[in-house]
Amino acid sequence: MKCKFLEGTEANLKETVELLGMRGKMDLGPVIDTVNGVLADIRENGDEAVLKYTAKFDGCELTPETMRVTKEEIDEAIAKVNPELLEVIKKSAANIRAFHEMQKEEGFMMDVAKGSKIGVRVRPLKIAGIYVPGGTAPLPSTVLMDVIPASVAGVERIVFCTPPQKDGKIAPVILAAASIAGANEIYKVGGAQAIAAMAYGTNTIPRVDKICGPGNIYVNTAKRLVFGQVDIDMFAGPSEILIIADDSANPEFVAADMLSQAEHDKIASAIVLTTSKELASKVLEAVDRRSEKSLRKNILEQSLQNYCAIIACDSLDTAIEFSEELAPEHLELCVADEDATLAKINNAGAVFVGNYTPEPLGDYFAGPNHTLPTSGTARFFSPLNTGDFYKKMSVLRYNEESLRDCYQDVAKFADSEGLECHASAVRVRFEN
Predict the structure, then answer these.
(1) Whole-model pTM?
(2) Is the pLDDT of residue 331 over 60?
(3) Which of 114, 129, 308, 404 allows an S-S link to 198, with CB 3.0 to 4.6 Å?
(4) Is the pLDDT of residue 26 over 80?
(5) Catalytic residue positions?
């Protein structure tokens, strides 16, 4: 089950970047056709189509009345969750909320001349949609990470969709987390049909202003296709971790952190860039040994063989250059000079500094958001944050005196673009 060992060459970097960028984008033609069919059907037939796809893909027969989770179902779910786990979820939620409170934004008004003002008003979105996948295991951490920023921003209606189980229920821990995080409306809908329902609205599920949350290739494709009808957070793909390690790193720590991401999915990626071939050898051995004992051995086998590698670099600067090109979702710095290395990093979703800042700390508890850009998109996307749930409006307020001072300049600018009516709209106020 061993992952690859590579020398850090320019060719290897290019190959690795291309390989990771392709994950989750393979064979998109048939996927797009399928998703377009779902979108069109739900746009035309609403609840009827949503329920049809829920029965087909989730094996669950629902009605418009049972599609929405009731307060009784939430209370029942909370009672079923292990009390110790419930306390941990509450602690984690408090950390996440405190972090995102620091991201709140306020507008401004600035004086420009003679009583005139310009500025920005910041207002929360009216209604946001949050999607959390079912997958191989319930993910209450993702519920917290996606709902809490919307709650902190002041979104009035937080619509939450997640796939139902075959018995027509949602995993209790998901409902408990959604309630703690502040979701107002919870619906038993998954897949591309959930994205379509939130984008277009049905009789039961309201049309939202923005859709956030991860998902499989069908969910991500649906988000791409409805973008413009609604806003979305980002095009998140399969999980990945990049670890920069020198000879000060602990090989057991590094191996464990690699596997923490590789176990997510058969196309998850875990890469180590190291200046120490001795460390590389020890990490390879530890990865092989630890993966053999894992409960998710079958997933790890495919991930390790196809999307994981340990790359030997001739210097720390070379490793950093590799990292900057890869722009990883998660970046761990297991190096002696942590501050100097961190100062050189510009492209990463989240950076975990030091041997005692493992990536799962960010997944579950510390507070920064774990919904992060993947597949190199950290070059231009940011983690999900409170600001994602605001919209901004420019405000301009001039008076007669302040406009008189500049109206001829405005008119000349408009004339230069051949827009006579623009120029006239300012000149008309001072013609007499």
Answers:
(1) 0.91
(2) yes
(3) 129
(4) no
(5) 329-330
